Amino acid sequence: MGKNKDKITERVKTILTDKLGIAETAVTPDANLSRDLGIDSLDYAELIMEFEQEFDIRIPYQDTELLVSVKDVEEYIRSNIS
Known about the structure:
Blueprint (H helix, E strand, L loop, with lengths): L1 H19 L20 H15 L5 H4 L5 H11 L2
């Protein structure tokens, strides 16, 4: 499990840094996506689509409000990948 966890963490971090053009050091587990990383609603929608594509999952609209921090995103992906 640990190895898979690290892989998800790294992929999430890569997506965030590539899409947002932010430093990798800014992407910490407790970083708030909007407050700390500066994600606006358009960025957020694009990131959701990117996560869906990268991890082959579906993130229903009602679940997107659960994804507040980087850790929330990682845990959501972990619990929804097959």
